[in-house]
């Protein structure tokens, strides 16, 4: 399944942004297995782009399609649900965990919806990212950095061909970021999936095969 974006621009951006961007206003396509890095300073539209690609909002000009040449604009709720269950996973910048549920519950819910790994992997992954002792803590009591690791693991518990990352390490130190990156790379490899990683310039340990300035 290939991801294609064609002549995209947020409706709230001036047309002139197409001239300076390597993404806005361009036609790009990405295949499973590719490592795509999108770098941009704050406020240049990384979150907007990721929300468009995941179908959380559609206030853009242009088209996005996955696989068949059908624009996701034509998707109904069921189409998006099916796509998000099997094909596209995301780590959102604002994480969107269930605050009253424990770390384990947040992850188990995802596992139940569409399991990719045996349930034991939940514990293993949390230990690997240094939050094993937080399994029974409510998410609202976890630090932002801990919550970010929960959001990363949650995204890795399902099948996907594209993993979308919106500044996934904004609350993590370098060591923890690198550990999380390693895990994400392994998980993408197991699935033969692509990663689309949007971040500020500072992360230099993502082994990208394509690089774009937003
Ligand atoms: N619905 C909207 N209407 C008008 N402007 C918007 C809307 N959504 C986002 N913007 C503006 O678009 C710009 C890009 O926002 P966005 O959150 O996509 O950037 P970002 O690159 O992810 O930023 P950051 O790195 O700070 O998270 C910002 O100036 C923001 O105020």
UniProtKB/TrEMBL annotation:
InterPro entries: AAA+_ATPase, ABC_transporter-like_ATP-bd, ABC_transporter-like_CS, ABC_transpr_LolD-like, P-loop_NTPase. Residues 3-211 form the ABC transporter domain. GO terms for cellular component: plasma membrane. The keyword Cell membrane does not apply. Keywords: ATP-binding, Nucleotide-binding. Pfam families: ABC_tran (PF00005). SUPFAM superfamilies: P-loop containing nucleoside triphosphate hydrolases. SMART domains: AAA. GO terms for molecular function: ATP binding; ATP hydrolysis activity; transmembrane transporter activity. Belongs to the ABC transporter superfamily. This is ATP-binding cassette domain-containing protein.
